Amino acid sequence: MKHTISARVENKPGVLARMSGLFARRGFNIDSLAVSTTEDPGVSRMTITVTGDEFTLEQICNQLVKLVDVIEVVDHTNDAYVDRELCLCKVCCDAQTRHDIIDLCNIFRADVVDVGNETLILQITGDEDKIDAFVRTMEQFGVREMVRTGKILLVRGVQRT
Known about the structure:
Blueprint: E1 2-10, H1 15-26, E2 30-37, E3 43-51, H2 54-66, E4 70-75, E5 81-92, H3 98-108, E6 111-115, E7 119-126, H4 128-138, E8 143-148, E9 152-155
Antiparallel strand pairs: 1-3, 1-4, 2-3, 5-7, 5-8, 5-9, 6-7
């Protein structure tokens, strides 16, 4: 099962290395990771997606809170939240397929951000399932390159993420 964890950490050099080192030493795999500053410039938020059972998740959370730079760790398994990822996808196209690709972009609410002679670069935001469906649809045209951000999220309502 996939789990999403938020860690509020001090915004200092080396914090990411210590966090990733902990995951490597314990043999936990990170499925996605997104890091950015928060409304407080001294604090960063790491949104980490991991796969594992409840025991693994508990071990990860317990180990993370022991790190000196970690302010708070929250497991969002049971929270109501809004999450998004960003994906850039470069697909092959020619004059005949260009309009088909643009029509599909409109259906998925994706944007064309670059037009080349033989390629288009497309941008899409959404949850993981939407982006997966978009990429599967684009595979028929030939995906030359693709990059995705990690998941980011905010908990709904007044509860702090």
